[in-house]
């Protein structure tokens, strides 16, 4: 006997619901890309300039802690911050083996670079240049300090930011991460040049019980991997 029109619609609704539930379960298990479940891909993190102060005098520190140097006399000056996040591809899957580099000015706004003419002092206990490789979960983390804004000649005052260079097998992304509440964010031509400036701005979260001195910032990254 043929089902009624109402019953047919009910069966179709149940079928769609069953398929969505099964797809969501497969996505959670890593068997399906996000685009197959939700019909949408994640936006690639927006590009920014490399900048003139990419480190050229040293290799990146791979300890995960830029607030101390081997043989140093103590911790770097400034507000300690943990920068962490997940590197994913546009389908939402974690990227294994992505090389994440960061570099930045110190708490006085000075880069450890021979071309930086800022008269602010260097900090002998601050590394300023680090690298990490993501595991199967795409996770990365650095202990560092919150940088200060600094004068950039005719450009004006650049807001506090941290540079990122993320390299995978098929893609490389150069970007910058900014801090919520910086008075120079709205005036910065580089930050304001992107389609969605807010996506590059992080909020400092309260410290954890394990690291009570470190504020926390989460900066997730999307690129092709």
UniProtKB/TrEMBL annotation:
Q: Which Pfam families match?
A: Dioxygenase_C
A single MF term (Gene Ontology): protocatechuate 3,4-dioxygenase activity
The record ties this protein, via Gene3D superfamilies, to: Aromatic compound dioxygenase (2.60.130.10)
Taking every annotated instance into account, which residue ranges of this chain make up the domain Intradiol ring-cleavage dioxygenases? 83-111
Q: Determine the domain of life of the protein's source.
A: Bacteria
Keyword annotations for this protein?
Answer: Dioxygenase, Oxidoreductase, Signal
Where does the signal sequence lie? 1-36
What PANTHER family is this protein classified in? DIOXYGENASE, PUTATIVE (AFU_ORTHOLOGUE AFUA_2G02910)-RELATED, INTRADIOL RING-CLEAVAGE DIOXYGENASES DOMAIN-CONTAINING PROTEIN
Q: Which family does it belong to?
A: Belongs to the intradiol ring-cleavage dioxygenase family.
Q: Could you identify this protein by its name?
A: Protocatechuate 3,4-dioxygenase beta subunit
Whose protein is this, by species?
Answer: Nitrosospira multiformis
Taxonomic lineage is: Bacteria, Pseudomonadati, Pseudomonadota, Betaproteobacteria, Nitrosomonadales
């Amino acid at each position: 006997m043929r089902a009624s029109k109402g019953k047919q619609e009910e069966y179709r609704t149940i079928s769609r619901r069953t398929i969505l539930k099964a797809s969501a379960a497969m996505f959670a298990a890593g068997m399906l890309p996000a685009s197959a479940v939700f019909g949408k891909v994640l936006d690639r993190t927006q590009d920014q300039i490399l900048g003139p102060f990419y480190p050229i005098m040293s290799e990146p520190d791979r300890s995960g802690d830029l607030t101390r140097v081997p043989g140093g006399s103590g911790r770097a000056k400034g507000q300690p911050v943990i920068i962490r996040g997940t590197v994913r591809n546009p389908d939402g899957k974690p990227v294994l083996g992505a090389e994440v580099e960061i570099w930045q000015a110190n708490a006085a706004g000075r880069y450890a670079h021979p071309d930086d003419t800022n008269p602010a002092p260097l900090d002998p206990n601050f590394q300023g240049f680090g690298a990490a490789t993501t595991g199967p979960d795409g996770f990365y983390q650095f202990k560092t300090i919150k940088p200060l804004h600094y004068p950039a000649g005719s450009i004006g005052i650049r807001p506090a930011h941290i540079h990122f260079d993320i390299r995978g097998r098929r893609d490389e992304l150069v970007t910058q991460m900014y801090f919520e509440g910086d008075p120079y964010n709205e005036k910065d031509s580089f930050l304001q040049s992107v389609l969605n400036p807010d996506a590059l701005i992080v909020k400092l979260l309260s410290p954890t019980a394990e690291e009570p001195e470190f504020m926390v910032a989460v900066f997730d990254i999307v690129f092709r991997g």
